[in-house]
Amino acid sequence: MEPWEVWVRATTLAAFVRDNGVWLWPLCETLHFIGLSLLIGTVGFFDLRVLGAARQIAPVHLHRLIPWGIGGYLLNLTTGTIFFFGYPEQYAYNRAFHFKLAFMSIAALNAALFYTAAFREVRTLGAGDPAPLRAQVITGISLLSWLGVLTCGRLLTFYRPPFFH
């Protein structure tokens, strides 16, 4: 066993997850799904608007929903941490988890790029206005990144390390 894995398994959180997994795991799965729905539902819809869908809605109106998406992300970060601490070997040695983290990193960097390079232009768009190409490229990458996170999250159970079974 790797030293980091020994440390994770020795934490209070890991013990709590192992001792209460019968009710905690399904609760966290449910909360994780709710967080995912909030995240994809708000950020995804905003991205689609910038890409040209639902042009009758001004992007600034959809952007008001983004705090709900951030809340969903924080909820998923919390429940994901609980999952990891409960069974670190299921995640740390899993290629789907590695890709999920990579997509999450791309999405985070892309969000920073959006707010520094394109948001000023997007927030002034009215209903019916097309977004600038730069904003469309950035939101397209956002949408693809979150779909990658979603896909890799679903694949976690199918690509568990052989010793986990």
3D architecture notes:
There is one protein chain. This protein has helices at 3-9, 12-51, 59-63, 66-86, 88-92, 95-117, 119-122, 133-155. The protein has one domain. The protein has 165 residues and is mainly α. The chain has eight helices and no strands. The model has no long low-confidence stretch (mean pLDDT 95). Helix 2 (12-51) packs antiparallel against helix 4 (66-86), helix 2 (12-51) runs antiparallel to helix 8 (133-155) and helix 6 runs antiparallel to helix 8.
Secondary structure layout plus pairing:
Blueprint: H1 3-9, H2 12-51, H3 59-63, H4 66-86, H5 88-92, H6 95-117, H7 119-122, H8 133-155
Helix share, percent: over 70%
How many distinct folded domains? 1
> Gyration radius, to the nearest Å?
18 Å
Oligomer description: single chain
Mean of all residue-level pLDDT scores: 95
Features:
165 residues, mainly alpha
In summary, what is this structure?
With 165 residues, the protein is an all-alpha fold.
